[in-house]
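Here comes a specimen:
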Amino acid sequence: MPRSVNSVAKRARRKKVLKQAKGYFGRRKNVWTVAKNAVDKAMQYSYRDRRVKKRTFRSLWIMRINAGARQHGMSYSKFMGGLKANNIDLNRKVLADLAMNHPEAFEAIVNKVK
């Protein structure tokens, strides 16, 4: 029985990877084995960093809230503890936005917590 190969599917697979490698430098964009490795690594990084992005933004929000709270003589941990004690349910994203863009509203929240 003759050997059966599916060249159409093979070429389509390779074209897909080479298209994803468009814009890479040197052989990474046009040599199949190098491009495949580069694209695989890029996909690993993108998967990982979609999760890292969430951590990074949370830490940024915490820094902004801490800076805003310290302007009014309060630490971040005391501020967040006071929010929980007073049943103020605002998440860190909203609090950071208030601290940055609406300092008077943030000050009102800090005064309520004190």
In short: Residues 32-71 form the longest helix (40 residues). The chain has a mean pLDDT of 96. The two ends are 84 Å apart (CA to CA).
